[in-house]
Automatic annotation (TrEMBL):
The keyword Transcription regulation applies. This is TetR/AcrR family transcriptional regulator. Residues 19-79 form the HTH tetR-type domain. InterPro entries: Homeodomain-like_sf, HTH-type_TetR-like_transc_reg, HTH_TetR. Residues 42-61 bind DNA. One of its GO terms (molecular function) is DNA-binding transcription factor activity. The lineage of its organism: Bacteria, Bacillati, Actinomycetota, Actinomycetes, Mycobacteriales. Keywords: DNA-binding, Transcription, Transcription regulation.
Amino acid sequence: MSDSVKRGYASPLRTAQAQATRRRIVGAAADLFVASGFAGTSVDAIAEAAGVSRKTVFATVGGKTELLGLALDWAVAGDDAPVPLAARPEVVALLELPHPGAVLDGWAAVLTDIDARVDGLFAALECAAASDEAARALFEQVSAQRREGARAIVGAVAGLGGLRADLSRSEAIDVAALFTEPVLHRRLVGARGWSRRRFERWLASTLRRQLLSRPDSR
């Protein structure tokens, strides 16, 4: 068998092994960031938890900021597929709904699922951003991404003629972006013991009242 054929057979195996190692490293980092915080987690601890060397951590993903950023990306999306949230079927589908109330209800469901996955990681990032420059830059990047998501939702609602007349487009985006803050989920579900379903209903109702000219429309 020629070398080229051997390489062809070996390549998928190597790719799968590399992906498995990457997932293990990012998973270990996510668990440690949630349990010990950003400052309290070392690359050595991540390497030990993942069963790899420190060098492998850096070569596969990077330093702590890159690890936290990737862990957040995967938590937001729900997996490690290279598909941005805006291109995910559930988001594409809700942006095509014919009624503004249904758009916000669908968005509340998506946000609730995301919050449940990112809650602890985002808390670690918020804390780190207060004293770490790289973490602060990541925090600003994540915040900008959330605002872009809010912009798309407001655009869909406005396109359907549902936006409140007393809100400018910019103000509506400000309000919508506010309700993407995972801290709301952390306070109500994590601290106060609300069920996810109750939180989702509250979020949908609040978004409707804040953004729609007719909050009870279907």
